[in-house]
Design a protein that fits this description.
There is one protein chain. The chain is an alpha/beta fold. The protein folds into 2 domains: 65 residues, no CATH class; 193 residues, Rossmann fold. The chain has 11 helices and 9 strands. Strands 5-4-3-6-7-9-8 form a 7-stranded mixed beta sheet, with helices on one face. A two-stranded antiparallel sheet has the order 1-2. Helix 7 links the parallel strand 4 and strand 5. Helix 5 crosses helix 6.
Length: 270
């Protein structure tokens, strides 16, 4: 089978499996596959609904390649805007500490740091700021650590296993917080595509009955801390964003739309 006929063969298989973005993915599969046996195995997994990103254990986020496995969710393009928002805030203000809460693969904080390291984007001395990635899942932190190593950022980004920001000393600190916590309401989660429910970790997606289980917990933790000041950027679901906003009302949250013009992010400051 020559390269072109192989590509058409893969495309037909992906179309039959109703795989989204099959043209892009078929090219990646063709480049990734080393043998006919490998290809047959990959297409069988695709047929069963397994996302390509979990098969090749790689995903692009913010033009950067990240390692992933089924202990973390697949980063979505919508989330990239959180990095843009964080860059703007970091350039305008001084922060002693930057925390990516519920880091998963580490894609948000890694994309942020790699961007801030570019002189064309930021001229600040990053050594004056602590960058921390937190998660309650040790398995997720293993993935984040692998990505931090991959991008040579071990001397800048530190990982910490903790419940949100619970065991981090932030007394009298100026802090930038980024949070993409599980926010899909229980009933909505049950209606998600089967491939998501079957392969992506439920604990990183479902946010309780109303979707705000973890943001309520984060709000409680913020109230008990004695920051100098903080800015919080969070991602949530359009159908519940007004309720999420109420949880953080004391901080005057502002709604920001994602690239699809959906109400997706809240930005607030103390």
């Amino acid at each position: 089978m020559n390269n072109l006929s192989e590509l058409f063969y893969i495309q037909r298989a992906l179309r039959k499996a109703k795989y989204p973005d099959y043209k892009r993915v078929s090219k990646e599969i063709a480049e990734f596959t080393k043998s006919r046996k490998d290809l047959k195995k990959i297409l069988e997994q695709i047929k069963q609904g397994k996302p390509w990103e979990y098969i090749c254990k790689s995903v692009e986020f913010y033009t950067i390649q990240f390692y992933i496995n089924q202990n973390v969710i697949i980063p979505r393009i919508e989330t990239e805007k959180m990095v843009n928002l964080a860059i703007k805030k970091f350039k305008k203000e001084h922060f002693d500490t930057v925390i990516d809460i519920g880091t998963g693969s580490g894609c948000i904080i890694i994309a942020l740091v790699k961007s801030l390291m570019l002189p064309s984007i930021c001229k600040k001395d990053l050594t004056k700021t602590k960058f921390i990635a937190t998660d309650s899942s040790g398995r997720a932190l293993n993935v984040a650590e692998e990505n931090i190593k991959k991008h040579n950022l071990l001397n800048i980004i530190k990982i910490k296993k903790t419940d949100l920001i619970k065991r981090i000393n932030l007394k009298n600190k100026s802090v930038l917080l980024m949070a993409n916590l599980p926010y899909i309401p229980q009933r909505q989660y049950e209606r998600l595509d089967e491939s998501i429910r079957k392969y992506e970790p439920k604990s990183a997606l479902e946010g309780g009955v109303d979707g705000n289980k973890y943001y309520k917990k984060l709000s409680e933790q913020l109230r008990t801390r004695t920051f100098k000041n903080f800015t919080l950027i969070l991602e949530t679901e359009e159908s519940i964003i007004e309720e999420t906003k109420k949880i953080f009302n004391r901080y005057n949250p502002i709604i920001v739309k994602d690239i699809y013009d959906k109400n997706r992010f809240l930005i607030m400051s103390s």
